[in-house]
Please model this.
Amino acid sequence: VIVSIPPQAEFVEKIGGDKVKVTVMVPPGANPHTYEPLPDQLNDVSQAELYAEVGSGIEFENVWMDKISSANKKMVILNCSEGINFIPNTENEGDNEYDTHVWVSPQNAKIMVENIYRGLIQVDPANRDYYKANKDKYLKELEKADESIRKSLSGHKNNKIMVYHPAWGYFCRDYGLTQIAIEKNGKEPTPQGIASLINQAKKEKIKIIFISPQYSRKNADAIASEIGGQVITVDDLDKNYIENLNKVADSFNKALNN
Model:
């Protein structure tokens, strides 16, 4: 099975167990807006039975899916975002009408998991019962994570977090938060933009700025030093999906309690 980004690898491995071998096209630390696949990855594609695409319009898939699908005409291509309610792309990130970072919401992850399960039983119907048992178990884990995050992030007077890259829209929607993004239209802020963000952070009493490891932290550091704050890394593309989202919730909680 081929997937585009690391969180999907956890979804496939949790359902597929020892029946699947997963290749991630955009490896940990790489940026799905700019990554180009390597020849050995395209070779893995030529032998795959299933490609689980995110399906929300991420740049990597917009640019590469035609080439990937033509490398293996027999491979089933599955859209993990089928059935997800997209939210508008308010940060004008890329050319998409909708926010592409669907996977950061455990509610969306449950839909993605159901879609992956359907793809697996399509290519390997003999193991349907095995996949179903694993899927049901993992859906319970996602439900538990969702409840725990909801509990930990409820009851804050201030619900605004400042992030470098606007990856957390669906997470914020689910848990009643608002993200203020430093990067606009996929571009670094202007000096005026930075000044405005500094004023906004002071007004909202924001002391922590969240940066994704795939991006430069220079502007986040500049704003943090002006507000007497700090920069913390949170990764929307971490492969250890549930463990990572719990850590992200703890970090956001810390910021909102500041």
In short: Residues 47 and 124 are 15 Å apart (CA to CA).
